[in-house]
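Team,

Forwarding the record for the chain on the shared tracking sheet. I've put the sequence and predicted structure together so nobody has to dig through attachments.
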Amino acid sequence: MNTRTAMIGLRRGGAEYMHFVRNRQEFVSSLIGTVGVYLALVLWQGGHDVEGAAGASQAVLMTAGFVAFAVYTAGLLSLPMSIAADREEGTLLRMRTIPDGVPAYLIGRAVFVLAQIGTYVALMLVAGVAFAGLELPSAAGDWLTLAWVLVLGTLSVVPLGAALGALLPGARNAAGILSLPMMGLMLVSGVMFPVTAMPAPVQWVAQAFPLYWQGLGLRSVFLPDAMLAAEIGGSWRLAEAAAVLGAWSLLGLLLAPVLLLRAARRESGTRLARAQERRAAQGAV
């Protein structure tokens, strides 16, 4: 890794993001799938307080949860599917023939996903202020908490998503493999309703994954202390949140380069041609 490789990756990621923004169909469908679904649920279910936490708005709880889930889905669903598709199309094979091509590719993908996440988060916060009664932080400490929660939350899933993309058998199977576990974690992680409503074993499972901790950190910024009545231990536990998110970030940063380089080395022209023939045969059936 060197400065030239990093700059190539940054330019690649920026170009992909601009293509994404200019592609109206892809951009609008992505916004409908994130901001649109969030608004629909807030307008439908957000008009009351959180059960067991009088004074804590359900709409604001859902806003914090959807921001966390937008980061989560971009890193652990969209990114792995994109990498799996690039493997099938031979992009990783081509990158292997270029000096530092794979690291530059990984940086480019990360930059694209980070820009995507930034767009979703900004639009959801604006929509939350307009439609959910969300109040942006007034204290500098809350802005600092919001910043590190979003940064660590993103780092905890983006490298891990890249590692998953290197392991998935193909782009067609990626959504089926990843969607069900992701939806399950969303349901048990307290981002849509208090996790304390779930049985104790489910609460322990939720706390093992970064989505719960990012949601907890965001709730500490946007929701009043009345919400603590519905939180585990009656505390925001920000130190524990930083530790867990940091551990997942480190794990992803260690795994992603190794697995992507290994995936690139496994690719060959013959293997790629056989895979394309199999997909063509399946499509013809």
